[in-house]
């Protein structure tokens, strides 16, 4: 996955004209992630998943938490009570 977290051993990658090596934040601002299947990791809690996807998006930890909270409130997603549970413990619709 092209996130800019690891320097390439060779070559260059540009995202919307931004070099992933020279301007990773600008490149990350244009990277999206649209899974075709359930991408939950069994060992990560919902809170840890949000932190992971926020990091992929290029957000700092505090910004990722704030955006996640705003998104959950916007869609009225009541996950605060399961925020620290593993995915296998949640009902199918909550995963």
Describe the secondary-structure layout.
Blueprint: E1 14-15, E2 18-19, H1 24-28, H2 46-57, H3 61-74
* Count of discrete structural domains: 2
From the alpha carbons, calculate the radius of gyration and give it in angstroms: 16 Å
Would you tell me the structural class of the helices and strands?
Answer: mainly alpha
Order of helices and strands: EEHHH
Strand content range: under 5%
| Side-by-side strand order of the widest sheet | 1-2
Q: What is the count of DSSP helices, taking H or I runs of 4+ residues?
A: 3
Mean pLDDT: 76
Question: Summed up, what is this model?
Answer:
With 95 residues, this protein is mainly alpha-helical. It has helices at 24-28, 46-57, 61-74; strands at residues 14-15, 18-19.
Features of this protein?
3 helices; 95 residues; mainly alpha; 2 domains
Describe the protein.
The protein is mainly alpha-helical and about 100 residues long. It is about 35% helix and about 5% strand. The protein has three helices and two strands. Strands 1-2 form a two-stranded antiparallel sheet. A hairpin with a 2-residue loop joins strand 1 (about 15) and strand 2 (about 20). Helix 2 (about 45-55) packs across helix 3. The radius of gyration is 16 Å and the shape is elongated.
